[in-house]
Write a structure and sequence with these properties.
Layout: H1 9-37, H2 49-65, H3 67-77, H4 79-96, H5 103-130, H6 137-159, H7 166-184, H8 215-230, H9 233-249, H10 251-254, H11 256-263, H12 267-276, H13 278-283, H14 293-297, H15 299-315, H16 320-336, H17 344-372, H18 378-383, H19 387-407, H20 410-421, H21 431-441, H22 446-457, H23 462-483
Helix pairs in contact: 1-6, 1-7, 2-5, 2-19, 3-4, 3-5, 3-8, 4-5, 4-7, 6-15, 9-19, 9-23, 15-17, 16-17, 16-23
Length: 489
C-alpha cells in the first residue's frame, strides 16, 4: 500500500484512461473479423477473407507504425492536446463505422480509427514512464499492463451483449471512449524529464532541456535514426525473428474467431453454462446450442489475468532469449492443437496453452531490446521496437486473408462442394441461408454438413501454416542465441 502512495494522481488517471481505451478497442476488435466476414442476416458485411485480411493487416500495421511519428507530435504540442484529438477521432470513427458498408469505405474508416489509436499509444505509455521513478517503474508498468488485460477481457464481454444489433458494437465502444473526456479534466501534463527516458514517446532520445525544432525536422531525424538501426544487423535480425511471433500471435484476433464461428462445435460449452450459469448461455450465444466465437477466444485475456504473475515468477530467472524461445514454442503448439478436433473444449485447452506461451515470451521481448541496446542508444532502440509488431500485423493479414480463404474458408469450401455435387442454389441468399439450403439439398443438418466438409476438405490444415511460422521463429531464435552467445544477455 505504501508503494501505491508514491504514484502521483496523473499516474492513476492515465491508467484509468488506458483501461477504458482498451475496453473500447477490444470491445470492437475481437468482434471485427466476424463482423467483416459474417452473414448479412446476422449483421455481417460478407467480405471475403482476403478483404478482411487486407483491412485488418494493413490497417493495424499502420497503427503500430505511426506512433514513431505521433509520439513526436505529442512531444511538440503537448500530451493532453494529443489525447483530446485521439479521443475525438476514436469517438467519431466508432459512431460513423455503422454508416459504411462498402470495402473502400470500411477500409478508410478503419485507417481513420487506427490514426486515433496511433495518437493515443505513445502518449499514454510516456505518461506512465514520466510518472514513475526507478524505484516504482516495475510495479507501475505492472499495474499498467494489468489495466490493458482487464480492458481486453471486459470489452468484448460487454459488446457481445449487444451483438444482435451490429451497430451497437461500435456505439458501445464510442460511449466508453467518451468517458475518457471526463478523465481528461483530471489529467495534468507530466513534468519534463530531466534525464533521458527509457521509453520515449516518439522513439528518439530526449533530454530535459530540449530544443524546439520544426516538426518536419523532427520527422527527418526519426527516419535518419531508423536508417541507422538497419546498420545494426544483430538488432535487425532479432526484430525480423520476432515479427514471426507477432504474425502467429495476431491470428488470435484475425483468424481464430472466424475459424471457431465456421468450424468449431461449441455445444458442449453451451450446455455446461445452460445448466450451471444460464446468464452466460443466454447472453453469449447467437443461437441455442452455440456459443459466441469471441466469448471462446476471449478466454486468452482471462487466462492472462489469472496466470500472468505465476508465469512471470517462473520465467523471471531465465535469460530473455530462453524465455522467448520457450514462449514461441509453446504458442506454436497451442495454435497447432486446433488441428485435431472441432470440440470447443479442445479449443479452450489450445487457447490456454497459447496464453502460457504468450505470457512467457511476449514481455521478454521489450526486456531483451533494453539489454541489447548500446548504452547511449537505449531510447532509440526502444522507440523502434514497433517494427516487428508492424510487420507481424501485415503478415498476419496475408495469412488470415489469402491463405485462410484458400485453405479454410467455409464459404469457399461450401461453394466448391456445391460445384462438385452439381447443386443449384438460388441467387441472393445470405451466406447463412446459402449454407442451410445446401444442407437441405443433400439431406443433412447444418452441423452434419459442417462435419462432412471438415472431414472431406480438412480446413484445419490452415493451422499447419501457423505452426510452421511459430516453430521457425523459435528455431531462428535458438540459432540466433547460439551465434550471438558470446555477447548474449
Amino acid at each position: 500500500m505504501n508503494s501505491f502512495s508514491k504514484f502521483p494522481p496523473t499516474f492513476w488517471v492515465a491508467n484509468t484512461i488506458e483501461l477504458f481505451e482498451r475496453w473500447a478497442w477490444y470491445g470492437f476488435f475481437m468482434l471485427f473479423a466476424n463482423y467483416l466476414t459474417g452473414s448479412s442476416d446476422l449483421g455481417g458485411l460478407e467480405f471475403s477473407q482476403t478483404q478482411k485480411g487486407l483491412i485488418m493487416g494493413v490497417g493495424t500495421g499502420i497503427l503500430y507504425f505511426l506512433p514513431v511519428l505521433t509520439g513526436a507530435i505529442a512531444d511538440r504540442y503537448g500530451y493532453k492536446k494529443v489525447l483530446t484529438l485521439a479521443f475525438i477521432i476514436y469517438a467519431s470513427a466508432f459512431l460513423l463505422f455503422p454508416q459504411v458498408s462498402s470495402f473502400a469505405a470500411v477500409f478508410g474508416m478503419y485507417i481513420y480509427l487506427a490514426l486515433g489509436a496511433a495518437l493515443f499509444k505513445p502518449v499514454i505509455s510516456a505518461t506512465i514512464a514520466k510518472t514513475t521513478t526507478k524505484e516504482t517503474s516495475s510495479i507501475g508498468f505492472g499495474i499498467f499492463y494489468m489495466m490493458v488485460n482487464i480492458g481486453a477481457f471486459f470489452g468484448p464481454m460487454i459488446t457481445l451483449l449487444f451483438k444482435g444489433q451490429s451497430q451497437m458494437i461500435f456505439y458501445v465502444s464510442a460511449g466508453i471512449i467518451l468517458l475518457n473526456f471526463i478523465l481528461l479534466i483530471f489529467y495534468k501534463e507530466p513534468a519534463p524529464a530531466e534525464e533521458p527516458e527509457p521509453y520515449p514517446a516518439g522513439g528518439m532520445p530526449r533530454t530535459g532541456k530540449q530544443e524546439k525544432t520544426s516538426l518536419l525536422r523532427t520527422f527527418g531525424g526519426i527516419f535518419r535514426n531508423m536508417a541507422s538501426i538497419v546498420k545494426d544487423l544483430k538488432f535487425l535480425l532479432f526484430l525480423l525473428i520476432v515479427a514471426g511471433f507477432w504474425t502467429m500471435y495476431n491470428q488470435l484476433f484475425f483468424t481464430l474467431p472466424v475459424f471457431i464461428s465456421q468450424w468449431v462445435d461449441t455445444s458442449a460449452l453451451y450446455h455446461f453454462f445452460d445448466a450451471h450459469l444460464p446468464f452466460i448461455s443466454t447472453n453469449y450465444s447467437p443461437a441455442p446450442g452455440v456459443m459466441d466465437a469471441e466469448f471462446v477466444t476471449n478466454m486468452d485475456a482471462l487466462y492472462i489475468i489469472l496466470l500472468q504473475l505465476v508465469v512471470s515468477a517462473i520465467v523471471m530467472r531465465l535469460k530473455p532469449l530462453h524465455s522467448m524461445m520457450a514462449g514461441f514454442l509453446v504458442c506454436s503448439l497451442g495454435m497447432a492443437l486446433t488441428l485435431f478436433s472441432q470440440n470447443v473444449l479442445f479449443t479452450m485447452v489450445a487457447i490456454l496453452v497459447f496464453a502460457l506461451g504468450e505470457m512467457a515470451g511476449s514481455p521478454k521481448i521489450t526486456e531483451y531490446i533494453g539489454r541489447i541496446a548500446p548504452g547511449d542508444k537505449k531510447a532509440l532502440y526502444m522507440g523502434y521496437s514497433f517494427i516487428p509488431v508492424f510487420l507481424g500485423n501485415v503478415f498476419a493479414g496475408i495469412i488470415s486473408g489469402n491463405v485462410y480463404q484458400a485453405m479454410s474458408d467455409k464459404v469457399v469450401i461450401t461453394e466448391k462442394f456445391v460445384l462438385e455435387k452439381g447443386l443449384r442454389i438460388a441467387d441472393g441468399l445470405s451466406t447463412s441461408e446459402y449454407f442451410r439450403e445446401v444442407a437441405r439439398q443433400v439431406n443433412m443438418s447444418p452441423q452434419d454438413l459442417t462435419n462432412h466438409l471438415w472431414d472431406t476438405y480438412h480446413p484445419s490444415g490452415m493451422w499447419i501454416v501457423i505452426l510452421i511460422i511459430g516453430l521457425a521463429a523459435a528455431l531462428c531464435l535458438f540459432l540466433y542465441d547460439r551465434i550471438t552467445s558470446r555477447s548474449s544477455v
